[in-house]
Amino acid sequence: MEMTIREIWTTIHGMVFGFIFLLGFSGALYAVYAMRPEWLTAEGMKRTINLTKASVWALAISAWAAVITGTYIVYPWYRARPPEGTTDLGNFPRYLLLADPSTAEWHRFGMEWKEHVAFLAPMAATVVAFIVSYYGPTLARKVGERRAVMIFFIVSFAAAAAAGLFGAFITKAAPVR
Amino acid sequence: MASRIPDNKPNGPVAAALLAGGIGSALFGLIVFFAALSESFATALNWYNPVGPLSGKSILGIAAFFIAWAVLHAMWKDREINFSSISTAALVLLAIGLLGTFPPVWHLFGGG
Fold it and tell me: Is residue B8 part of a domain?
């Protein structure tokens, strides 16, 4: 049951912040999708909008927290260069993956995509959170704006999902210890 | 019932946020793309050694997003904007960001 500090931070990055975003996405997306005047009364919309606003801001903050902790805390451990003459690459995941042709693509494709595409998630999620907060229940009457919000939200989720999926695969192949 | 929902806010701030999201994504994608093609450009983005070039890429991308947002918001905060054209532009820019961060696209141009 012991975890190193590196494993704890990797868990916070992926299983706390990343998981909150991925888990909360579908509920928040449905809340935005369901903001239609023909589906909800004005009173009902006013009541649910506060929860929707809180949800989208929580998701945006968790997305930012995931990329910041991932990039500036976990990633340096992943990419650390082993000292000259090191034979056991267990503590140097990037070099461990690249040392074996059968695992090198986890870095060359998986990690290279993950570390970059992840940054689109918090930017898009922040835009979504701002627009939902700005319009509030009025968003129900803005068909074009609601559609744009949903596309940004889905792209945000897709970017986070790709990053999360490859993060899990890479951690399985070469964990940060 | 729905007519009681207020509908008097200008769409300028929303257009500004959406376009800024597109600009930040596209600029980040282009920086990542050109860093994959040019070793010297990637090295120039190494602003914090433990993180390597990703430090410069991430800081520039995030800065572009927030600066673009602040500028556009100041310009459009009280205005009604043609939302259709802005949202189309924002989505195209978002797509550029997605393409720029996708390694097979770098490989098409000899990078990565």
Answer: no
Q: Residue B30 sits in which domain range?
A: 20-108
Res. B3: pLDDT tops 50: no
Q: Is residue B3 part of a domain?
A: no
Rounded to whole angstroms, the Cα distance separating B35 from B39 reads 7
- Whether the full predicted model's pTM is greater than 0.90, yes or no, is yes
Assigned domain for B62 exists: yes
B58: nearest CA in chain A?
A119
CA atoms within 13 A on the CB side of A105: 2
Question: In DSSP terms, which residues pair with B52 in a beta bridge?
Answer: B48
ipTM of this predicted complex?
Answer: 0.93
Helix, strand or coil, per DSSP, at residue B82: coil
Residue B42 lies in a domain: yes
Burial zone of A110 (CB within 10 Å; 0-12 exposed, 13-18 middle, 19+ buried) = buried
Domain count within chain B: 1
Read off the tokens for B77: 């905060």
Start-to-end CA span in chain B (Å): 56
Interchain contact B93–A (C-beta under 8 A): no
Spatial separation of the C-alpha atoms in residues A164 and A67, rounded to whole Å: 11
Instruction: Tell me the pLDDT tens digit for each residue of A16-29.
Output: 999 999 999 999 99
Q: Is A138 on the interface with B (CB under 8 A)?
A: yes
